[in-house]
């Protein structure tokens, strides 16, 4: 079992791989998130740069710390909010609604001190489904129900967007609706989603099963398309140039099909308007 979380089997998306060396055993992220456990510049020493004596000190320190989630001793992760004394085991974090940020400094926050985007709507429309699994989301924004901070229309389950992040990797990770990548990934990092960085293609579960996620909307969504070439054709400029919804980018229209002048460069679909 891992010396820091005391589990032999955990969710690899949460705790990472298990390392064994010098008679020590610990999960990668249990090491990174452990409070007051510091990594050396040379990752060839100890366990990925964590010295055996420092790991033993962290274990001894944690022996007197109770996890506020499971109640057991040995909690090594402390909430980073000043004056908060809540400790927990890393595998307990998701169950307890804690946010663990898988970016530099590896900060952790208990449910009372998690980051929240102030201008994001707190409730989805009735009947809203997760855009990834197509199952209903909670009736309000919770730890397990999240919304895209960019388009503010894409709702999804935390576990679903985490699964997509693990498959896509940082270079291909984006909102499943508006396709924003930079701001979306930044906010997901802050909200505790782990997004691995790799230079290889996304590890989709089936061959090209989610290839459509990277595709730009490319047809006219108007009730009646007037373009002689059809909905899927467009011109580079003029009345038959295809404009995408400036809010969601999930629908498009030729200027003429929506009665727009050639000088109009921005358009919103009926849902967003």
Give the secondary structure arrangement, pairings included.
Layout: H1 12-15, E1 18-21, E2 24-27, H2 28-33, H3 52-62, E3 77-78, E4 87-88, H4 93-96, E5 99-100, E6 108-109, E7 145-147, E8 155-157, H5 158-168, H6 182-190, E9 242-244, E10 252-254
Antiparallel strand pairs: 1-2, 3-4, 5-6, 7-8, 9-10
Descriptive key words:
273 residues, alpha+beta, Herpes Virus-1, 3 domains, two-stranded antiparallel sheet, 6 helices, 16% helix, PHD_PHF7/G2E3-like, metal-binding, PHF7 protein, transferase
What does this protein structure show overall?
This protein has 273 residues and is an alpha+beta fold. It has helices at residues 12-15, 28-33, 52-62, 93-96, 158-168, 182-190; strands at residues 18-21, 24-27, 77-78, 87-88, 99-100, 108-109, 145-147, 155-157, 242-244, 252-254. Helix content is 16%, strand content 10%. A two-stranded antiparallel sheet has the order 1-2. The protein is elongated and about 75 Å long. InterPro entries: EPHD, PHD-type_Zinc_Finger, PHD_PHF7/G2E3-like, PHF7/G2E3_ePHD, Znf_FYVE_PHD, Znf_PHD, Znf_RING, Znf_RING/FYVE/PHD. One of its GO terms (molecular function) is zinc ion binding. Residues 1-114 form the PHD-type domain.
Radius of gyration: 23 Å
Going across the major beta sheet, what is the strand order? 1-2
**CATH architectural type of the largest domain:** 2-Layer Sandwich
SS strand fraction = 5-15%
Quickly give the structural class: alpha+beta
User: How many separate domains?
Assistant: 3
Low-confidence residue ranges: none
What general outline do the C-alpha atoms trace?
elongated
The overall pLDDT, averaged over residues, is: 89
CATH class of the largest domain: Alpha Beta
The run of helices and strands is: HEEHHEEHEEEEHHEE
Q: Return the CATH topology of the largest domain.
A: Herpes Virus-1
Q: What portion of residues is helical?
A: 10-25%
Our measurement of the CA-to-CA distance between the termini, rounded to an integer number of angstroms, reads: 54 Å
Subcellular location: Nucleus
Pfam family, one: zf-HC5HC2H
Main location: nucleus
GO molecular function: zinc ion binding
